Amino acid sequence: MGAESNAGRILIFTGCGKGKTTAALGAALRAAGHQMRVLIIQFIKERCTGEHEALERLHDLIEVRRRGTGFLPENDEEGMEKARAAARAALQEAAEELSAGQYGMVVLDESLYAIERGLLDAGAVREAICARAQGVHVVLTGRGHCEELAELADTITEMKCVKHAFQSGRAATKGIEF
Fold first, then answer.
1. What DSSP line would sit under 51-88, residue for residue?
2. By three-state DSSP, how is residue 12 classified?
3. Is the CB of residue 153 less than 8 Å from the CB of residue 160?
4. Whole-number Å distance between alpha carbons of 137 and 150
5. Is the CB of residue 125 less than 8 Å from the CB of residue 149?
6. Which residue among 30, 45, 161, 166 is buried most deeply as judged by most CB within 10 Å?
7. pLDDT tens digits for 8-20?
8. Are 105 and 38 spatial neighbours (Cβ–Cβ below 8 Å)?
9. Contacts of 147 by beta carbon, 8 Å cutoff, 6+ apart
10. Which residue, 52, 51, 84, is CA-closest to 68?
C-alpha cells in the first residue's frame, strides 16, 4: 500500500435532510469496530440524546464532547456571542486533538452549520484539518456548503429532505429525533 492509504480521509455529510449526524455516527461505529479510537466534538448540540446514552457504553473507543450552547437564538446577539465563544473554544480543542493523533477519527459534528451561521471561520477549520496528524480521518457534518472545505473532502454526501414529520406539526420523538 502506498502513502495514500495512510493519508486519512475527509468526509462531509451535509444538506437539509435528516441523517447527517447519524451517518457520522455510523462511520464512528465502523471505525470503533476496527478498534480505532474516535472523538466526536459537537459544535451546536448541548442536550443529552439517545446517541449519547448508547455511545457511553462504548466509552473506551468513542468519546463524545458536547461543546455547543444548543439551538442558535434568532435576534439575540448575547446568545449568539456565547455560541461563537463556545464554537471557537471547541475548534481550538478539536485542532489540538487532530494534531495530537490520539484518535483515528475525529467527527466535527455541526461544524458546517457553525460556519454557515458565523460561529466559526472556514479558514480556521481548514487549518485545523490540514494540521492533523498523519492517518487521522475527519468527518464534518451540518447544513450548509463550504467550498473551502469541500475542496479538501474525499467524500461528500448531501442529505435531502423529502418529507419530515415536523412539517405536519409533529413534535420531536424520543428515539427518532433525539
1. HHHHHHTTTTTEEEEE---SSPPTT-HHHHHHHHHHHH
2. strand
3. no
4. 15
5. yes
6. 45
7. 999 999 999 989 9
8. yes
9. none
10. 84
C-alpha cell at 131: 494540521
Q: Are 55 and 31 in contact (CB under 8 A)?
A: no
Bridge partners of 40? 64, 107
Q: What pLDDT, in 10s, does the model give residues 36-78?
A: 999 999 999 877 788 888 899 999 999 999 999 988 878 899 9
Query: How far is C-alpha 149 from the chain's CA centre?
Result: 13
CATH of domain 3-163: 3.40.50.300
Sign for the pseudo-dihedral over CA of 55, 57, 61, 64: positive
- Angstrom distance (rounded) from CA 155 to CA 166: 29
- Total residue length of the chain: 178
The grid coordinates of residue 12 equal: 462531509
pLDDT tens figures, 131-158: 999 999 999 999 988 999 999 999 999 9
Which amino acid, one-letter code, is at 98?
L
- Examine the pLDDT at 167 and tell me if it is beyond 80: no
